[in-house]
Amino acid sequence: MRGERPMTEASGFPAVTAPEAMTISALDAAVTTCRACPRLVAWREEAGRIKRAAFRDWDYWARPIPGFGPPDARLAIVGLAPAAHGGNRTGRAFTGDPSGDALYRALYDLGLASQPTSTHAGDGLELYGVRITMPVHCAPPDNRPSTAERDTCRPWLTRELELLRPGLRAIVVLGGFGWQALLPLLADAGWRVPRPRPAFGHGVEALIPTGEGEQEVHVIGCYHPSQRNMFTRTLTPAMLHEVLGRGAEVAGLRAG
User: Which GO terms describe its biological process (predicted)?
Assistant: First the structure.
């Protein structure tokens, strides 16, 4: 029937459903029902069945992971996608894996999180003025979503940033994939992204007008706190702390 909302399995589900969400909580609820990318659905559910030995007693979440943090956040952190045995297991972004260990420790040290660890969705963790989200909400094989999967998932992030936009003052982007996904999205949403578009780099900062009055948002690049990057010291705890601290400063969450 014309005008009927598509099933969650339909590739058009995010594009139709995301703009209908009038609140962050409604958007989060809709995200968790999405089955639009067959490869990602199969992978996330397989990971939930074929568990790592260390997590054999866990009942895996094995669904899309919504954003995490308050609906009036002034600072957004944009990652890549959930880990198969991290967020896909726990039900919360950057939770239960080494990337999350580094990220939440830094946020806690900056006074932006209530505790330094994040182990599962009911562990009592709160974020202060910060919301964590991602361009792809399902765990991908080898941590590599396809371009088509990124584009199918894109309406969720578009709507999330639209709902956050009135109070948003800074976005820290973790990794090149998130940077390359975010800037075209902002341009299509009417933000005045510079041309040529700024290239990703650790500590790179772009001040981007949102298209609403004189409001501008600082978009800041940061190497992804992956286990590999932290092990090789491509990204150190001090480097991560510095970039997140800069984001908090320009967002008005922390004195400079």
Answer: base-excision repair
Contacts of 130 (CB under 8 A, 6+ apart): 69, 70, 73, 74, 75, 76, 77, 107, 112, 113, 248, 253
Classify residue 1: in a domain, yes or no: no
CA torsion sign for 146, 147, 152, 153 is positive
Report DSSP state, residue 4.
P
pTM: 0.95
| 197 occurs within a structural domain | yes
Beta-carbon count within 10 A of 187 CB: 15
Please give the backbone phi and psi of residue 208, each rounded to the nearest 5 degrees, phi first: -120, 120
Number of domain units in the chain: 1
State CA 85 to chain mean position distance.
17
Distance, in Å, from the CA atom of 120 to the CA atom of 118, rounded to the nearest integer, reads 6
Residue 107 is part of which domain span?
A: 13-250
Contact 21, 163 (CB under 8 A): yes
pLDDT at position 254 is 76
In a domain, 2, yes or no: no
Question: Residues 102-113: pLDDT tens digits?
Answer: 999 999 999 999
User: How confident is the model over 45-56, as a mean pLDDT?
Assistant: 94
Q: What are phi and psi of 171, to 5 degrees?
A: -130, 125
What pLDDT band is residue 95 in, cutting at 50, 70 and 90? very high
Strand segments (E) across 129-233: 130-133, 170-174, 205-209, 216-222
- Does residue 246 lie in a domain region? yes
User: Which residue type does 100 have?
Assistant: G
Burial group, residue 254, by CB count within 10 angstroms (0-12, 13-18, 19+): middle
Residue 229, domain CATH: 3.40.470.10
